[in-house]
Amino acid sequence: MVEGLVRCSANYAALTPITFLHRAAKIYRDRTSVIYGTLRFTWSQTLSRCLKLASALTQLGISHGHVVATLAPNIPAMQELHFAVPMAGGIICTLNTRHDPSMLSILIQHSEAKIIFVDHQFIDIARQAFALLVQNKLQPPILVLIPEHSTTQSTPDSQEYEYETLLAGGKDEYAPMPPKTEYDPISINYTSGTTSRPKGVVYSHRGAYLNALATSSIHGMASNPVYLWTVPMFHCNGWCLIWGLAALGGTNVCLRQVLPEQIFAAIALHHVTHMGGAPTVLNMIVNSTHRKPLPHKVEIMTGGAPPPPSILSKIEELGFNVSHLYGLTETYGPATSCVWKPEWDSLPLEERFKLKARQGVEHYGLEEVDVRDSKTMKSVPNDGVTMGEIMFRGNTVMSGYLKDAKATEEAFSGGWFRSGDLAVKHEDGYLELKDRLKDIVISGGENVSTVEVETVLYRHPAVLEASVVARPDDHWGQTVCAFVKIKEGLEVSSKEIIDFCRDRLPHYMAPRTVVFEDIPKTSTGKIQKFILREKAKAMGSLS
């Protein structure tokens, strides 16, 4: 035992991303923190507003462990609440703005939110959810209405509060409540519901602190980045970048709606340096009639399903530099990134984009990521062929699922967090995602990676969007079913799509069914394959 050591206030403080705001207000006090239309705040103003808001929350009874929910798009109030709620000792629960009143009422009840901040755009949905709670003899939370800054529309009801009025009633000299330990919850993020009813994923102050720094790093952010909010702030707390931008004194450019014309306009007007988005957002940009070469290089992070190389090529032609990352709600968003190697610059273009579509290696805030056999827990060989389940462990893995000990135990069985995603490991240790465990198609005893089929489909010049699922089959067990959305003004037949795939894939991997229709997505751009699986199942056997 080493003698003479002590842990005290001089050498230890619980890690919390709230400290980033205090630092930003000190070092970058006059630098712009938020831009939203004509609205501007500096970092010193943001700190003052967050302190007053936190004070107001305590006046409404919020203290350690109380949940405060939000239902809002990417607006300044969302940025402020990410600091003010934990400053008051609370836990922020950012709800998906696409939830209907029924799901919203369920999540409000499950989270036990004491207060919910609702943007004027979603006030009717919130009030309908409240009515459902009352019908079930449950007490709704306090509602705080967030009006549009530029209008006086949407006044609160008599029993509701208004955001700016509430904030103005807080005290400037408020002393924030530090977490009792750095493992205290800072946020609850409900999963996107791409597979089932959302689970409440709990983040800690420590994990949020580390992931905020790690995500900023893998995004290549230096001091004073200008970040365009195309990733929903409610999704994994904006990949933890709401906190990360404060650490760097960056500028938050808020967009209420993610539209190509607004993206290009904001990039030029505010000299945006960084942004993010799912592959579907990249697809929307490259197929937009508003697309045009950028006035300067913009770093764009993408995650979710592996982006097809064809989309990567087109987005970079416009002037974006794409970084590919991978993670889940349970890993605070980004967990791995495809760290680029200089020697890859000399490779042929198509090979470079294939490499860029990999999920890569863990960031420095994570202890370890590996691809393992789900049953034996043995690590698969680095042969680029043998599939296993992606597993994580480290400080940026969730604390657990809210009120669901069974699901938490299952997710952590074997001492790792089990992602449910299938991948291979290449010789250099980089991961490449192949499929979700539940999405893999087993046809005639052969495993078909839906990701590989989708990559080929996106190479067809008429295909705008594509998603592949299994269709039950009496002879083969399952066959490949492709849901395809065609670009406006173009026509193509099922046979042409099937033949296109058969020319580029082993025949057992090519679709035997092609359905032309719009593809359902979550608000974060993830394709809802569980809906497509149900549609394919309802078709019955092809044989």
Automatic annotation (TrEMBL):
<feature type="domain" description="AMP-binding enzyme C-terminal">
    <location>
        <begin position="452"/>
        <end position="526"/>
    </location>
</feature>
<dbReference type="Pfam" id="PF13193">
    <property type="entry name" value="AMP-binding_C"/>
</dbReference>
<dbReference type="InterPro" id="IPR045851">
    <property type="entry name" value="AMP-bd_C_sf"/>
</dbReference>
<feature type="domain" description="AMP-dependent synthetase/ligase">
    <location>
        <begin position="22"/>
        <end position="402"/>
    </location>
</feature>
<keyword id="KW-0587">Phenylpropanoid metabolism</keyword>
<dbReference type="InterPro" id="IPR025110">
    <property type="entry name" value="AMP-bd_C"/>
</dbReference>
<comment type="pathway">
    <text>Phytoalexin biosynthesis; 3,4',5-trihydroxystilbene biosynthesis; 3,4',5-trihydroxystilbene from trans-4-coumarate: step 1/2.</text>
</comment>
<dbReference type="GO" id="GO:0106286">
    <property type="term" value="F:(E)-caffeate-CoA ligase activity"/>
</dbReference>
<protein>
    <submittedName>
        <fullName>Uncharacterized protein</fullName>
    </submittedName>
</protein>
<comment type="similarity">
    <text>Belongs to the ATP-dependent AMP-binding enzyme family.</text>
</comment>
<dbReference type="GO" id="GO:0009698">
    <property type="term" value="P:phenylpropanoid metabolic process"/>
</dbReference>
<dbReference type="InterPro" id="IPR042099">
    <property type="entry name" value="ANL_N_sf"/>
</dbReference>
<dbReference type="Pfam" id="PF00501">
    <property type="entry name" value="AMP-binding"/>
</dbReference>
<dbReference type="InterPro" id="IPR000873">
    <property type="entry name" value="AMP-dep_synth/lig_dom"/>
</dbReference>
<dbReference type="InterPro" id="IPR020845">
    <property type="entry name" value="AMP-binding_CS"/>
</dbReference>
<keyword id="KW-0436">Ligase</keyword>
